[in-house]
């Protein structure tokens, strides 16, 4: 597959990093020679200096033979324009990054699709959705819904109170049990478990279940004493914070701290009256105490500085906040944040890259989530008629190492998978994989 990325900025660099290990033919276009030099020295790809809206530059990049053109510059107008040109020059698929919620309106997306922009990606709103999902369940590090929640994956940090520690998984996750453990993050190691593996204290375990059994999962992992989030504090009044606050459940009260006085004025105009905007630094412990941090269940740090977000979350934890969320855009800091037990980590690059990665695959793929904390992918595949995955029961498929099938959705109903499960064409199949190229997995489904 040939892929052209326009824009060697944060998301473009991160996506290039992922794709350079996939043996795809990759070209990165950017107007800035220094940005190209940095990305070209790190990854196996070709760079081309110039404007992505230039027909000459696109032809030099080989646009007529391109399977996927991805426009990721900070200028949404240039992204859309270059996608329209790329489409006219016979690129098979195009995707553009945008920075305005208006582009997410169905009629607007349809209009641009008719013009040749196959997909519009708005990283801030994608990140906001992940933040809200994290706040809805204070005892969960990450929640991922399949088919509007027909199946649910829960990432949970296990503590001493967990009732299912130190027992072989084949005794815990049998065909009649209401959950499967699809992955375990232990220290720096990611484990796709077998029946002999056991859960240990301080593991980050990923449970696949159906919605009605979420209270049961909460009970067996010892999280019943965790209070639900009713009050939340935000640090940083950027676009991601605004999108999250605009979509916050009505039962949650919110305060947002912003150090820039002018931005505070903007926030008062952008946000509902039930969100209190505070001009101040959320790293100021005395200010947090004055504003009621001890009666707050969640703290969300979304400033542009990863170190500040991590430190602020640590301070909030010391003040008794159980649920913390930190935006960590620097990938090198993610493992550090995990080791400090920060909680939910938000990385817009990884979220956007997962959505873009869907367009690379030939099988019907409904959703992909890259789980940075586990260095793993969760993908939702729809098998075609007579595809390999439909010919034998799961236990006889000979799945490659590092892959497990967490569950399926059939006719709108979520189902867990056992060895005797026979997958059918049209099912939505949730695949969890670590250190495996998704292009290799999709061969089972086409």
Task: Give structural notes.
- By secondary structure, the chain is of the alpha/beta class.
- The chain folds into four domains: 2-121, Rossmann fold (3-Layer(aba) Sandwich); 143-221, Regulator of K+ conductance, C-terminal domain (Alpha-Beta Plaits), CATH 3.30.70.1450; 231-321, NAD(P)-binding Rossmann-like Domain (Rossmann fold, 3-Layer(aba) Sandwich); 362-443, Alpha-Beta Plaits (2-Layer Sandwich).
- Helix content is 30%, strand content 26%.
- The strands form four sheets. A six-stranded parallel sheet has the order 3-2-1-4-5-6, with helices on both faces. The chain has a six-stranded parallel sheet with strand order 14-13-12-15-16-17, sandwiched between helices. A five-stranded antiparallel sheet has the order 7-8-11-9-10.
- α6 crosses α9 (239-246) and α6 crosses α14 (348-357).
- The protein is globular and about 65 Å long.
- It starts with a strand and ends with a helix.
- What is the overall silhouette? globular
* Count of separate DSSP helical elements: 15
CATH architecture of the largest domain: 3-Layer(aba) Sandwich
CATH class placement of the largest domain: Alpha Beta
Strand order of the largest sheet: 3-2-1-4-5-6
Q: Which range best describes the helical content: under 10%, 10-25%, 25-40%, 40-55%, 55-70% or over 70%?
A: 25-40%
In total, the number of strands is: 22
Which value, in Å, is the CA radius of gyration? 22 Å
Low-confidence runs (pLDDT<50, min 5 residues)?
none
Number of domains: 4
- State the CATH superfamily name of the largest domain: NAD(P)-binding Rossmann-like Domain
Q: Which fold name is given in CATH as the topology of the largest domain?
A: Rossmann fold
Largest sheet: 6 strands, parallel
| Average residue pLDDT | 89
Give the termini distance in whole angstroms: 17 Å
Overall SS class: alpha/beta
Domain RCK C-terminal: 141-223, 365-446
Protein name: Trk system potassium uptake protein TrkA
Keywords: Ion transport, NAD, Potassium, Potassium transport, Transport
Domain RCK N-terminal: 1-121, 229-346
């Amino acid at each position: 597959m040939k892929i052209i990325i326009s824009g060697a900025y944060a998301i473009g660099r991160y996506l290039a990093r992922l794709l350079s290990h996939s043996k795809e033919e990759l070209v990165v276009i950017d107007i800035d020679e220094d940005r190209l030099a940095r990305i070209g020295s790190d990854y196996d790809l070709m760079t081309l200096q110039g404007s992505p809206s230039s027909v000459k530059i696109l032809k030099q990049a080989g646009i007529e033979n391109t399977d996927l053109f991805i426009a990721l510059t900070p200028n949404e107008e240039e992204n859309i324009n270059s996608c329209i040109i790329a489409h006219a020059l016979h690129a098979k698929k195009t995707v553009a990054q945008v920075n305005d919620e208006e582009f997410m309106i169905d009629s607007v997306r349809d209009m641009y699709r008719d013009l040749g922009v196959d997909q519009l990606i708005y990283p801030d709103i994608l990140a906001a959705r992940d933040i809200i999902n994290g706040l809805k369940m204070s005892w969960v590090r990450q929640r991922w819904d399949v088919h509007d929640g027909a199946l649910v994956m829960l990432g949970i940090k296990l503590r001493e109170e967990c009732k299912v520690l130190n027992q072989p998984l084949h005794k815990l996750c049998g065909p009649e049990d209401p959950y499967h453990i699809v992955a375990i993050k232990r220290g720096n190691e990611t484990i796709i478990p077998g029946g002999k593996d056991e859960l240990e204290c301080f593991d980050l375990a990923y449970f696949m279940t159906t919605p009605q059994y979420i209270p049961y999962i909460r009970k067996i992992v010892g999280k019943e004493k965790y209070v639900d989030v009713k009050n939340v504090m935000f640090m940083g009044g950027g676009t991601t914070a605004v999108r999250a606050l605009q979509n916050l459940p009505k039962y949650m009260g919110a305060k947002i701290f912003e150090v820039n006085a002018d931005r505070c004025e903007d926030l008062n105009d952008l946000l509902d009256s039930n969100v209190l905007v505070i001009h101040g630094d959320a790293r100021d412990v005395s200010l947090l105490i004055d504003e009621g941090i001890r009666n707050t269940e969640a703290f969300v740090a979304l400033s542009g500085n990863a170190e500040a977000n991590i430190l602020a979350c640590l301070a909030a934890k010391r003040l008794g906040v159980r649920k913390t969320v930190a935006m960590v855009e620097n990938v090198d800091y993610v493992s550090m944040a995990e080791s400090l037990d920060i909680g939910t980590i938000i990385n817009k690059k990884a979220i956007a890259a997962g959505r873009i990665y869907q367009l690379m695959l030939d099988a019907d793929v409904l959703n992909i989530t890259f789980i940075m904390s586990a260095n793993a992918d969760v993908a939702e595949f729809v098998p075609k008629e007579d595809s390999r995955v439909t010919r034998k029961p799961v236990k006889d498929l000979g799945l490659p190492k590092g892959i497990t099938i967490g569950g399926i959705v059939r006719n709108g109903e979520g189902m867990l998978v056992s060895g005797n499960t026979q997958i059918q064409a049209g099912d939505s199949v949730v695949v969890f994989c670590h250190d495996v190229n998704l292009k290799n997995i999709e061969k089972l489904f086409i």
